[in-house]
Amino acid sequence: MNLGRAIALCRKQRGYSQAQLAEKADISISYLSLLEQNKRKDPTLSVIQKISEALAIPSGILFFLAADQTELSGLPVDLQEKLSFAALQLLNEQPPEQALI
């Protein structure tokens, strides 16, 4: 599992800098940087929830994007592809606070 890669991917897709995401998630920039570099592999569920909420995506999406191929081996390939497509579509949508009213 590579949670740091998933966080960085989602952050970049949303167009946030590390500073912006850290502020939105109420965590330090240095902690976020360490998470993204996989130098801290022990984030609590509450930290993951804060990051997910700041990115406006379900935490399950982060876990799915962080999963290694071996961790997904129990899922049929077509389901893996559908889930990947749905995750990417979700990231391409504007977060609710940025959507035009």
Tell me what the structure shows.
Helix 1 packs across helix 5 (59-66), helix 2 (18-25) packs across helix 3 and helix 2 crosses helix 4 (45-55). This protein has one domain (3-93): 434 Repressor (Amino-terminal Domain) (Orthogonal Bundle). The chain is globular and about 40 Å long. It has 101 residues and is an all-alpha fold. The protein has helices at 3-14, 18-25, 29-36, 45-55, 59-66, 77-92.
Q: Name the helix and strand elements from N-terminus to C-terminus, one letter apiece.
A: HHHHHH
Tell me the total number of β-strands. Answer: 0
- Give the CATH class: Mainly Alpha
Radius of gyration: 14 Å
How many domains, in number, for the residues? 1
Structural class: mainly alpha
Distance between the termini: 37 Å
Domain HTH cro/C1-type: 7-62
Keywords: DNA-binding
InterPro entries: Cro/C1-type_HTH, Lambda_DNA-bd_dom_sf, TransReg_Diox_bact_type
Protein name: HTH cro/C1-type domain-containing protein
Summarize the SSE layout with pairings.
Blueprint: H1 3-14, H2 18-25, H3 29-36, H4 45-55, H5 59-66, H6 77-92
Q: In short, what is this structure?
A:
With 101 residues, this protein is an all-alpha fold. It contains 6 helices and no strands.
Which characteristics define this entry?
101 residues, mainly alpha, 434 Repressor (Amino-terminal Domain), 6 helices
